[in-house]
Structure formats: C-alpha cells, structure tokens
Amino acid sequence: MKINSINKSVEGDKPLISIEQNDIQSVPKVFYKGEEIKGKVRVVYEWNTKSLNEMGSNVIELEFVDKDNKFANKVIGHKRGSAVME
Asked: Is the pTM here over 0.90, yes or no?
C-alpha cells in the first residue's frame, strides 16, 4: 500500500507524507517532506470526506524516538477540517 502526496510541500515536488507498506505484517516506511522517519513509535493517518463538494478532515500524527533525547519522543502532527474541532 502506498499513500502519496497529501499536500505538496514548499520545497517543490516532494509530497508532505509518503507511506509504503509491503504487507500487513511489515513495518511501514514513512517519509515526511522527503526524509524517512526512523525510530517510529506510532503512525496515524486518517482522511474523511465531508461531501462530494466539500473538503472533509485530515489527521496526520507521526511519533518517533528523539535521537537527541532518549527519554522523550517527538511528534509531527497536522490536522485539517472537522478533525481540528475534535
């Protein structure tokens, strides 16, 4: 499964996020703005449509081990639409 190009980044043709997963048993490869996220703890991607003519909501949360601080994780998050209200 491959999910590409949620939103084009400012850096050009690189997608905001890209997720590659070979099968249901494998660990997904996640790329954020062209760079692979290593030390993944949690990957959340949710997209919902509101209607045929209206944008729905989108939630992205990437949690990973902070290589500079082994006692804390970093989280990259994006929310759009009705997901922001939740």
From this structure: no
